[in-house]
Amino acid sequence: MEKIHATTVLGIIHNGKVALGADGQATMGNTIAKSNVRKVRKLFGGKILAGFAGSTADAFTLIERFEEKLNSYGGNMKRAAIELAKDWRMDRYLRKLEAMLIIANETELLVISGTGDVLEPDNQIAAIGSGSMFAQSAAIALKRHAPQLSAHEMVQEGLNIAADICIYTNHNIIIETL
């Protein structure tokens, strides 16, 4: 059986606000399996946002582990992310998980991958998933040329543009903000 995957997740910090959004499409091979998957959520009492791309079951496992790390490190997002990435790379079970995460608080935006990377992207814009380059390109242009827009509006438009181009991204967009 093929794994369910493919999505676009986009996060932006702009003018002191953070927005993280994702489309709702999950695909199995070349078929849409579900069109309204919720891929972003608030964690740690609503202080941290998390979004995932990749295998849904794998991503849920990683988000649960990340929440455990957050609790262990008193909500220190960067430390929890680094510890998760170390575990993900070293643990025999976790190493097989196929997903990526974007996590954010009001001041930091991080991408966590299974290769042990914890990246703080340039321009306070992060994107993952099949339509990530489309969404990220749109977000960079919006941040540069339409700074009057809010972080929420930039994420909305970036994901809409990705959905217009990427066959693995749809217009059922959910955005969380801090």
Number of domains: 1
Give the helix tally. 4
Q: Looking at the structure, what is the overall shape? A: globular
* Strand numbers in spatial order across the main sheet: 6-7-8-9-10
Strand content: 25-35%
The major pleated sheet works out as: 5 strands, antiparallel
CATH homologous superfamily, by name?
A: Aminohydrolase, N-terminal nucleophile (Ntn) domain
Query: Whole-number radius of gyration?
Result: 15 Å
Query: How do the helices and strands follow one another from N- to C-terminus?
Result: EEEEEEEHHEEEEHHE
Structural class: alpha+beta
CATH architecture: 4-Layer Sandwich
* Average pLDDT: 92
Please report the distance between the alpha carbons of the first and last residues. Answer: 38 Å
Spans of at least 5 consecutive residues with low confidence: none
Topology-level CATH name: Glutamine Phosphoribosylpyrophosphate, subunit 1, domain 1
How many β-strand runs? 12
The helicity comes to 25-40%
CATH class: Alpha Beta
Provide an overview of this structure:
The protein has 178 residues and is an alpha+beta fold. The protein has a single domain, classed as Glutamine Phosphoribosylpyrophosphate, subunit 1, domain 1. Helices cover 34% and strands 30% of the residues. The protein is built from 4 helices and 12 strands. The protein has helices at residues 56-72, 77-90, 132-145, 151-165, and strands at residues 4-5, 8-14, 17-22, 26-28, 31-34, 40-43, 48-54, 99-104, 109-112, 118-119, 125-129, 174-177. A 5-stranded antiparallel β-sheet has the order 6-7-8-9-10. Strands 11-2-3-12 form a 4-stranded antiparallel β-sheet, with helices on one face. A 3-stranded antiparallel β-sheet has the order 1-4-5, with no helix packed on it. Helix 1 (56-72) packs across helix 2 (77-90). It is globular. It starts with a strand and ends with a strand. The model has no long low-confidence stretch (mean pLDDT 92).
